[in-house]
Structures are given as structure tokens and as C-alpha cells.
């Protein structure tokens, strides 16, 4: 296979290197194209642009493959847990017993939010968007840990282990505090519990009555977080890399990523699923009419939580969380008309040719919305759970940017379609 590509521009031929990834991915290296020719590549939305080289996550959407550091997501979901997978994503290898203990100890030591920072919640309205609060609070962590947020890559990397633990642990605590704030409830502080159990404790305990842990619920939440730990160069992770490339500290960078994640086309997609189900129910439909209208091309009956912009096959995470969803619903004995509608839509998508031929399979957002509703988590908090789970991937990507000595600030180009040069017109002549 040739290791160069030839591009014909007017009467010139330009030779461009070809990069080949460890899984056979191929890319034409156009980094010197503008300097050598004056041309740039136009790729709206960067859908065909490789913005970086990374060793963290491999995603093959055509074949439904997702691997973290080489490990298939199916194996991690079956044998690992969120904290161990977070360590793998961040540090590149599964931890040995000593490393796992040390990492867990760091998470426990950094779970509590400073008392002065807790007062920030008093300034937020009760109905403030949860992701706005989460982004603000994560950004504010830089002011409480200035030694970890110097905006100097060399210094910040020396303290990286501490920063990573602060973020993973405190994002979880802040998420629970956001829920309590919106409910007008007193904060419940972390205990010496497993990661997912601690989150459920901080959300649902009462001052004199601790939340009773249900193993199936804890397992489902742990699995949900694990399945969201990283997903290659998605919108929010790319935002973290973009901001981090300016040498911005890890807290500021993740705060920006959380802002990107809040959008309904990204982390907010699971919220849109529940809104769709509620709308179907409010119209007195059990899902049958909605499915038929969707098959007729009615755009107002858009199936939320089906299909994926990257996967052209079944989302491997959906297979895993779909099974867990069935187990939790059966265990809890939940009777919910929205969940009944969801199961009817799922059955149609998996069995009817209209959906199969268009590869409109249920994705992870579809099942995550259902499972979080079953766990008693309100729709407003869905994207916060997503953000807690995604923290390891964003942290790992920030580290790759900070560790790249040859890195440069991210700076996309554009094709300008505005006015050509024109002269200023005085007010009396306009």
C-alpha cells in the first residue's frame, strides 16, 4: 500500500503523507497543505477530519465496535466496574491491586466539596438548569485547587493524579447536591461506600435514614456510568481538547466539555427520549400510532434514541444496557406507562423491516433514559449522570493534549462567504 497520496491542484501535483492507525484506519495528512499551496480542506462539522492521534478509545461504527485501550466494551461491562474502567481509560492499563487501592483512596479523600463552595448553591435558582450548575461548579473547582490549575502544562501534569481524583469524585458529589438543591432538601455528604452506592446515598438518603442499597440498582447505575466513560472524539471531548490546547487547566477544560455535553443533540438526547415517550402518552397512544406515523415519514413523529451519527450498526452499549434495563424493571416490579410505550417502540425497531433497513436501532440514550427513570432519577438529572460517567474520558483526552510536547493550539480555518472589502459609509449617506 502506498504511503503517500497525490493531489492535483491546477497544474501542480502535491504529494501528501498517509497515516495508518493501529487498527488500519487511514488518513491523508494535510497539515502542510495550506502552507505549501494556500488551500485548506473544507469539512463542515469535521465529520471526515482527524483532529488528533489518540491511544484511548477505538470506535468502528460500521461494525459496532467500541474498545477502551484495546479492551472490548462487552468485556469491561461483564467483568469490570466504573472505577476500574475509569483508571484504565485515564492511565492506559487495568490497575493491579495496589494501584486500585491507591486510586480508590484518592477518590474517597476527595469526595467532599468545600463548605464555602457549598454556599454557591444558594445563589442558584431552584429551577436553574442542572448542567449549567454542574459546569459552573466544576469551573469553580479551579479556584479551590489553584495548585492543580496553574495553566502550565508541566506543573499541572505533575499534579495530574490528584486533579483526576478531585474531578471524578467531586463531579459525582456536585451532581447529587444539584439534585438535592432542586428538591429543596439538605445535602447528604459522602460515606465510605462504593462509587455508585455513594452517589445513590447522597441523592436519596434522608438526614436520619440512609438510602437502602438495592444491588440490582447499584449494578445498573455502575454499568450506566461505565458505558459512558469515553466515546472517542465526540463533541464534548473534542471541546475539552480544544480548550486544553490553549494550556487551560483541566478544571476549566472539563467545565467547557460539560457545557458542550448539555446540548440535546449530545448528552441531552436521553432527556429527549423521555420527552418523546411522555408526549406519546399524553396523546392517549400506547406507541402503536406513533410507530405507524413515523413509518409514513411524519417528521413530527421523530424517533428519539434510535440510530446514531457514528454507528451504522447496532450500538454495542445499547445491547448491554438494554439487558440490564430488563433485569432492573423485573426486579423492581415497576409498572409505568412510559416504560410500556418504550418497550413497544423497542420491539418495533428490532423486528420491523422499516427500522431494520434504515438501521434505526435503539441506542444507548434510549435505554439510559428508561433505566434512570426506573431508578427514580428525574429527567432533569439525566445529562448530569452522563457527565459524571464521561469524566474519565475527558480527563484522559486533556492529558493527551497536555503531554504532547509538539502540540499546538487548536485553530480551525474557515471559508469566508461574507462581503468583500467595502468602504465605510457616513451616517447621513446610509
Automatic annotation (TrEMBL):
One of its GO terms (cellular component) is cytoplasm. SUPFAM superfamilies: Citrate synthase (SSF48256). Belongs to the citrate synthase family. InterPro entries: Citrate_synth-like_lrg_a-sub, Citrate_synth-like_sm_a-sub, Citrate_synthase, Citrate_synthase_AS, Citrate_synthase_bac-typ, Citrate_synthase_sf, Citrate_synthase_typ-I. It comes from the Bacteria. GO terms for biological process: tricarboxylic acid cycle. GO terms for molecular function: citrate synthase activity. Gene3D superfamilies: 2.20.28.60, Citrate Synthase, domain 1 (1.10.580.10), Cytochrome P450-Terp, domain 2 (1.10.230.10). Pfam families: Citrate_synt (PF00285). NCBIfam families: cit_synth_I, PRK05614.1. Keywords: Acyltransferase, Transferase, Tricarboxylic acid cycle. The active site is at residues 308, 365. Pathway: Carbohydrate metabolism; tricarboxylic acid cycle; isocitrate from oxaloacetate: step 1/2. It catalyses: oxaloacetate + acetyl-CoA + H2O = citrate + CoA + H(+). This is Citrate synthase.
